[in-house]
Predict the 3D structure of the following.
Amino acid sequence: MGKVEQIRQILLDPFSKVLTLSDFERQVLRLASRGKTNREIAEYFNITDERVAYYMRNALAKLGVKKSDLPSIVLDNIERIIG
């Protein structure tokens, strides 16, 4: 399955993969989708930037995409996808 198809699948049937996300992974993705940087998210939760990056990588891996592969449409719709 190609990257475009993976992203399309997430947008069409987001709940199957989203259910695997922890609450914290959802919170990190939600803040990232609102334009917050890893540093800002780290300050918000009082954790390190590296820890935020760790949770971001895990969340995106569970969704089956890489951060570099995320087109703006996914970031624009992540709030709807993760609830």
In short: The helical segments are 3-12, 14-18, 23-33, 38-45, 49-63, 72-82. Residues 3-82 form a domain with the Rossmann fold fold (CATH 3.40.50.2300).
